[in-house]
Each structure stands twice: as C-alpha cells, then as structure tokens.
Amino acid sequence: MNKNFLRAILIAEKVFEELPFFVRPGVTEKRVADEIRWRLKSYGAHKESFRIIVASGKRSALIHGFATNKKIKCGDIIMFDFGALYRNWRSDITRTYVVGKPTARQKKIYEILKRAQAAGLKKAKHGVKCSEVDKAVRGVIKRAGYELKHGSGHGVGSKTHEAPRISKKSGHVLKDGDVVTIEPGIYIKNWGGMRIEDMVLVTHIGPKILTQVKRTLSL
C-alpha cells in the first residue's frame, strides 16, 4: 500500500488512542473536536479528512452528529468519527465509547454491531459484489430487531467517500487493492446511537483490517 495512505491511518489512530486524556465529563463536544483537530495536525496531518463528528448522549443517534456546545456527562454514549488528511490521502475511522460503566443495553447494541461488522468482513474479498457485503451486515442488524439507516461502507483514498459503495443496490465487484470501510450503525431516537467503522484492504483471501483502534465500549 501507499506509505502516505498508511500514514494518514496511523495519525488518526494515534489521536483515537489519546482520547481518554482529554474526554471527560464537563468538557464540551466542540472542545473535544478542537483538541482532535489540533492533535491530528501536531502528528503531521495537513488537516482533518472531513468535518469531525463528536456526538454525545442522545445526540449520538444522529448519523452525522457534528460537535456542539453540549457538555459531556457521565454515562453518555459518545460517537467519534474522524480521520487525517496526509499528502492527499485520507483516513476514516469511527468508534463509540461510553463515559463510565456501560449499561446492559449499551453493551447489547455494541455486541450487535460487532457481529454485523464481522459478517461484512467475512464477505469483503476479491470477486464479491458490494451488495453481498451490505446484505451480510444489514442482515445481522435486522435479525436483532433494528435497522441500518445508511450504506454499510464506502471506498476511501484521495477522497473520504469514493467508489466502491457498499450498499444494497451496488453492483460493483470488489477486487484486490480496494480499500473500503465496513461501518454498521444503530441509531435510536431519544436514547443514542452507536457505530463502528474500520478501513479494510480487499484481497483474494479476505480482508486485511487496516485500522487497529481498540473496539471496546469503555473509554
């Protein structure tokens, strides 16, 4: 893979690892987003890949919950979606954490997403239609009684969203070298939402997960 592409991923991963150092009750979403932006640049990013998403509490049910002046509270779900732009290459990662001890319901939703992502990853290899990957992800969520309200993923490279699209109607066939995201999400109004998003390199033998940020609910 292009070393600059990998660098864009590593920069974002480094900032994700540092979230526990500055995300705490009483801090606003905007203050957290500003800190993420500053740290991305401090590690060499030209800027963020796209507008940073920091959505806490009930706002995490927004698919694109851009940061506001809302203060983070203990018990809040927080969805983080951001990446780094490095020499024209972009990364895109989403993680969802809970401030404090996760509840039984929060754990349940998160486990559904992990299973959904695993089902998509199992399908994401050379020669498979994108619609089949989407079907695998969407099926797990549907069987659990929920709905996926967006596509299961997309290509990433010089643009944050590019071909191929991992969606119901996509006829694109994955091939060696494609880099796509697999990003199941569940969004419940007046409760909150969760999403996990990882970048994947498609190969003949299956996916190589490029993003290694911890997949746990505890921040």
Automatic annotation (TrEMBL):
Report the InterPro entries cross-referenced here: Creatinase/aminopeptidase-like, Pept_M24, Peptidase_M24B
Q: Locate the Peptidase M24 domain: which residues?
A: 6-203
PANTHER family, alphabetically? AMINOPEPTIDASE, AMINOPEPTIDASE YPDF
The name this protein carries in UniProt is: Peptidase M24 domain-containing protein
This protein's species is candidate division WOR-1 bacterium RIFOXYC2_FULL_46_14
The uppermost taxa in this organism's lineage are: Bacteria, Bacillati, Saganbacteria
